[in-house]
Amino acid sequence: MLHDAIAAISTAPGRAAVALVRVSGRDAPAVAGRVLTPFRPAELRHVRRARARHPDSGEVLDDVLYVAYGDGASYTGEALVEIWCHGGLLAPAEVLAALYAAGARPAEPGEFTRRAVLHGKLDLLQAEAIGDLVDATAPAQRRAALHQLDRGTSVRIAALRDRVLAVEALVSYDIDFPEEDDGPVRPERVAGALADTVAAVDALLATAAEGARLRTGALCVIAGRPNAGKSSLFNALLGEDRAIVTDLPGTTRDAIEVPAVFGGFPFRLVDTAGLRDGGDRIERLGIEVSRRFLTAADLVLYCADAGAGMEPAEHAFLASLEVPVLVVRTKGDRAQPSPAGESGLVVSAHTGSGIARVREHLAALAFQGLTSGGSAAPVLSRERHRAALTHARRELETFGEARAAGLDAAVAATHLRAAVTALESVIGLVTPADVLARVFATFCVGK
Ligand SMILES: Nc1nc2c(ncn2[C@@H]2O[C@H](COP(=O)(O)OP(=O)(O)OP(=O)(O)O)[C@@H](O)[C@H]2O)c(=O)[nH]1
Ligand SMILES: [Mg+2]
Question: Do residues 119 and 1 touch, judged by C-beta distance below 8 A?
């Protein structure tokens, strides 16, 4: 258990009925005892009422509730006291200042969770999941974070590590008896187990792109010719008037990006300037911005007026895109049945018809793996995970090549060790301090 007591306000600042102030560390009960009267540190996990006083002046600061936790049975894994005081700006700040005066020091961002990891209460993936849960804005993000918090991802990575350990066991005979020509384990068996392991790594890596999208929101760019009804559709999808709409082609000059949730999934929806040649200087700059967004897009929502046929240039543009595209035919309320051969979902921003279906289609397009059945499938959610698995895969391949080239088994097996270490670093079983620092850098104080 770490000695120094750390303290922080764990709830968001501002006007509120209550706020939570936490103090953790071996000295936490002693620190809390200098502030709370009465204080019964031996009564663990009981809610008690007390007065919070400044330890120097003795002035009463607030009427509070507190709970004391013993080490091993708290969030941080060490002695912890939670103090529920009144909310707002003053009461929590004064209680916190009293805890500082009583010997606690300010907690760094994420330090409570970091201590939980150090004390084995959480692994690194679970700690990241807590950060994701706090940041979640869409139900699908919450589902994925809770799954990771339940060790869903940890179990998958640990299973991968076990597979590598099994390959290691297979080659151990060759290491112990290198002079034997034909050991009990045939090389093909090792090669087969290795190939299966690489395939399992690939299966997990295949979820990385979707996992990243789930954390950051899928970038959905609305594109189309000027006046196609892009901004109207943008507003209809968001349910509020964010972008200016006029009957003049070239109204939208700049890209507008707004976070949104469709079908429970997170999106960043972008309205852009209509694509055409010509226009004035500002419009041409706007079209440049549109093109930049299009190269970064996860998917494109293409608008074409339902009342008109699509031009060859539009078909060429659609064919040039490398990301999923949803084509919608706009202004469906005033259009005749669409010209033969023209496809696309018919919508009307004015009547709202088809808008719900657009949202559903976007969710299915951007989050195919999660919407088609396996809704709780564990996904790699961060670049850190992807990089470590890619590293592990490279080591496995190098091992295979080394064995095929007849390299000494003991030497080749060092690559299996390296693969195991890379996988363990994802879960946080062996995690260098700089990795920990990077993971917790994004946490808020009090978490
Ligand atoms: N009847 C009808 N008119 C629509 C609909 N959607 C858009 N419009 C009209 O089409 C015109 C252009 O709409 P915008 O949403 O500004 O089109 P845009 O594609 O953003 O145009 P630019 O920003 O100039 O590229 C406006 O006069 C809208 O009122 C619709 O669903 N039904
Ligand atoms: Mg517009």
Answer: yes
Hey, CA dihedral for 107, 108, 113, 114, is it positive or negative? negative
Residue 330 in contact with ligand 1 by CB distance below 6 A: yes
CA distance 192 to 184: 15
Residue whose C-alpha is closest to residue 222's, from 138, 330, 311, 136: 330
pLDDT on residue 418: 96
Contact of 21 with 34, CB cutoff 8 Å: no
- Order of strands across the sheet with 265-271? 256-262, 265-271, 218-224, 299-305, 325-330, 345-346
246 CB near ligand 1 (under 6 Å): yes
348 lines ligand 1 (CB under 6 A): yes
Of ligand 1's listed atoms, the one at least distance from the Cα of 225 is 25
β pairing state of 80-86 and 60-69: antiparallel
Q: What is the pTM (predicted TM-score) of this model?
A: 0.85
Length of the chain, in residues = 447
Largest CA distance in the chain: 84
pLDDT at 178: 62
Mean pLDDT over each residue of the chain, to the nearest integer: 90
Position in ligand 1 atom list of the atom nearest CA 271: 20
pLDDT tens digits for range 27-62:
999 999 999 999 999 999 999 999 999 999 999 999
Give the DSSP H/E element, type plus range, for residue 383: helix 383-404
First to last CA, the chain: 18
Mean pLDDT for 317-323 is: 91
Whether 442 has a pLDDT exceeding 80, the answer reads no
